[in-house]
Amino acid sequence: MRRYMIGKGILLFVVVLFFSHCGSKTMTVSSSLNTPEAAYTKARRLLASGSYAAAGTAFRQALQINPNYAPAYEGLSRVAFEQGQTNQAIRHILMAKLKDAAYVPAWMLTAEIYRSAKQYTSAVTEYREALTRDTDQLWVVDIYYDLAQTYEQMKDLEEAHEAYMQVIMLDPLHLEARASVSRIRETLGTPFLMKLRFENREEVLP
After folding, report:
1. What secondary structure letter does DSSP report for 34?
2. Can you give the CATH number for the domain in which 76 is found?
3. N or C: which end of the chain has fewer CB within 10 A?
4. Contact at 8 Å (CB) between 181 and 164?
């Protein structure tokens, strides 16, 4: 009888341990994967590898979990943009802005779309808007750098110089911006340097 009770107790312990382990594992998988952030992260990896169809599917999975998740719309816009589907890209990026106007990458991607279409003035407007919305300055260096390149494409080297200088002030080790400033100063020559000196803006690169 005592042996039977011991055996029954062991069996009960094993059963409880088994179901407890399974339940814990199930909850862990569910909580880690069933989120828009997890689906978005997976989609970004797929997008970076060039798997556009799979990336699009993952971005849509994020939206199934949370239909208001702006980064997923920005991701779908990026997928369309990379595939040359400009109208689709614009439709998705407008939806991202509608869902969350404070989501800065949506404004940055809009500017990139305009740049690709050589609509530089509109691109500048979007970059400037992105700067005003980047209150935490998470993307400010990238925004100023892209803005500077846009001004260069517009042949407005003085504005490009100003934007590159903003990059350097924020990130003194930004080698591309430093090289661009040196190149612009050499291109514009003595008159531009004299103008900087006259305006007391003859900045020495940090």
Report:
1. S
2. 1.25.40.10
3. N
4. yes
